[in-house]
């Protein structure tokens, strides 16, 4: 371990000052660390990346578990590709260590990391047939010809491209090209499969179909997968765990349900799923719960994000459009509001309403009935659920 890396190991991992400083040449520390971390498919330990004055990735610690489907999710420029390229070895970290399967790879070049990679833009070799594209990694590794042929055929079957072996990439649709790219990444039996927005160039229907197939293949092979997307729907539907990133920083790591229902900060709350923000006041804090006042309504929320706030401070309550309800105006236990617009969405109507306090909210009303009963201008009572609310201090 270099001293440069030692500077950025998170505090919890540092040796306490009362223990002797290890002599790195003779200490058992690096070996012990490797053994302890051996179980992770990928481990980034204090990894940091700058481009000139831009910090693309702040000091980051991330464990990818064996066999899991982990998604890096965040807006454009937040550092997803940077993180992926660090794992792949296309970028060198300015600090920290990277381990794959417990093995130190910080200074290992990409082709020796036994990693499969699929990019957004196919990146197939245009002058090679499908079979030669898929077999490329095996030829580079000196695998015998007969074995290459068998493995290429088997992998083309896996991605449902039997019979396409002799075609040129030019003769394939976008979806088929991306299957070839996936086959090329899988044929080497990678320790980790990395995918950077692999479906974003495909139309919506094809993207949905490819997502289902990728998930099936991933489950069947049990290959550890790190998937990059800025599409929260894609992340929620595919992942075992989601890493939510913004501005070069990991904001939260959790299962889709955890990040959807228990966002840790307002960025995550606003980024995952559609959400309304309702202005409220903090009333009381007790243990893990807090009580907030929304107009005349009292609601309980998780207290964690409000702990340092005095009673009476303003807070924003986050609530999903499908959790709000429309009731007759003046009904007890509702907030007064007025319908501003109705947006037809097929299976539901998005009813936009203005609160008496001026905020605009969206309520997802199932069916089409609201079109007839709630014309713009209608006064309504907005029903706010008792549970499932989260609140954060205003920005
Ligand atoms: N080679 C580079 N030189 C300079 N700056 C870079 C380089 N690569 C990335 N950056 C900067 O680092 C930050 C993170 O970029 P990155 O490509 O990781 O974002 P991303 O999350 O993948 O975004 P997108 O969703 O648009 O692909 C951005 O500010 C970007 O401009
Ligand atoms: Mg990117």
Write a structural description:
By secondary structure, the protein is of the alpha+beta class. The protein folds into 2 domains: 3-10 and 34-266, P-loop containing nucleotide triphosphate hydrolases (Rossmann fold), CATH 3.40.50.300; 276-392, OB fold (Dihydrolipoamide Acetyltransferase, E2P). It contains 11 helices and 20 strands. The chain has helices spanning 3-6, 29-36, 80-88, 130-140, 145-158, 174-186, 204-221, 232-238, 256-261, 266-271, 370-373; strands at 40-51, 54-65, 69-73, 95-100, 103-104, 115-118, 192-196, 224-229, 241-246, 249-254, 276-286, 289-294, 297-302, 314-319, 325-328, 334-344, 348-355, 360-366, 379-383, 390-392. It has a 6-stranded mixed beta sheet, sandwiched between helices. Strands 13-12-11-14-20 form a 5-stranded antiparallel beta sheet. The longest helix is centred in the middle third of the chain and has 18 residues, at 204-221. The radius of gyration is 26 Å and the shape is globular.
In brief, what are we looking at here?
With 395 residues, this protein is of the alpha+beta class.
Compile the SSE list and pairings.
Layout: H1 3-6, H2 29-36, E1 40-51, E2 54-65, E3 69-73, H3 80-88, E4 95-100, E5 103-104, E6 115-118, H4 130-140, H5 145-158, H6 174-186, E7 192-196, H7 204-221, E8 224-229, H8 232-238, E9 241-246, E10 249-254, H9 256-261, H10 266-271, E11 276-286, E12 289-294, E13 297-302, E14 314-319, E15 325-328, E16 334-344, E17 348-355, E18 360-366, H11 370-373, E19 379-383, E20 390-392
Helix pairs in contact: 4-5, 4-6, 5-6
The structure holds adenosine-5'-triphosphate and magnesium ion (MG).
